[in-house]
Amino acid sequence: MANWRPLVHWIMLIPHFVILAVFHIVAWLLAILTMLVVLFTGKLPAGIASFQVMYIRYYHRVLSYVHIIHDQYPPFEFPSSEEDPGGSPVAVNIAVPSGNRNRLAALFRPIYGLPQIVFVTVYSYLVVAVVTIAYLIILFTGRWPVGMRNFVIGFYRAHARYLAFMYMLTDKYPPFSAAA
């Protein structure tokens, strides 16, 4: 990895940041719609679930490039299959249940998810600090310290599980852990 990369690689990501901004808005609007659809019908629409899976996967691919965890420039591909096609240090495989969903759980998901919101928010602030320090280390050594890299990859896992839960792609409550 080139030592200078932390200074300029973000410029190449501007198109991805624009796409992510649009996807982020759509994903949260669909999360609200999903809550209402599940509340009234008890089913999760497959098209919405596919978009949410694609968004979570794309978001973490771009994030891993932003943080210089992954050297491969994120492709402008948007696969929505449950099985991750690979190409990132964090595989995002989400098996969306196809049967009836708990309507009451859909109603209270935002409240039930509050502890996860706090956990992921605090973790994300720690990741910003670790990445900032790692950028300085990369400038001089050209590589990530292993422990710091694993800490950031753990955040990707925790964040992906949190998003899958909040977007109702899974009913399994995510653990307060970065473990795989």
Please give the number of β-strands: 0
Secondary structural class: mainly alpha
Radius of gyration: 17 Å
For the largest beta-sheet, the strand count, sense and barrel status come to: none
Q: CA-to-CA gap between the ends? A: 26 Å
| Helical fraction | 55-70%
Low-confidence stretches: none
* Pattern of helices and strands: HHHHHH
Q: Tell me the number of helical segments per DSSP (H or I, 4 or more residues long).
A: 6
Shape: globular
The residue-averaged pLDDT reads: 83
β-strand amount: under 5%
How would you describe this protein?
- This protein has 180 residues and is mainly alpha-helical.
- It contains six helices and no strands.
- It is globular and about 55 Å long.
- It has helices at 5-8, 14-41, 46-66, 103-112, 114-141, 146-166.
Provide a compact summary of the structure.
Helix content is 62%, strand content 0%.
Secondary structure elements and their pairing?
Elements: H1 5-8, H2 14-41, H3 46-66, H4 103-112, H5 114-141, H6 146-166
Helix pairs in contact: 2-3, 2-4, 3-6, 5-6
Descriptive terms for the model:
62% helix, mainly alpha, 0% strand, 180 residues
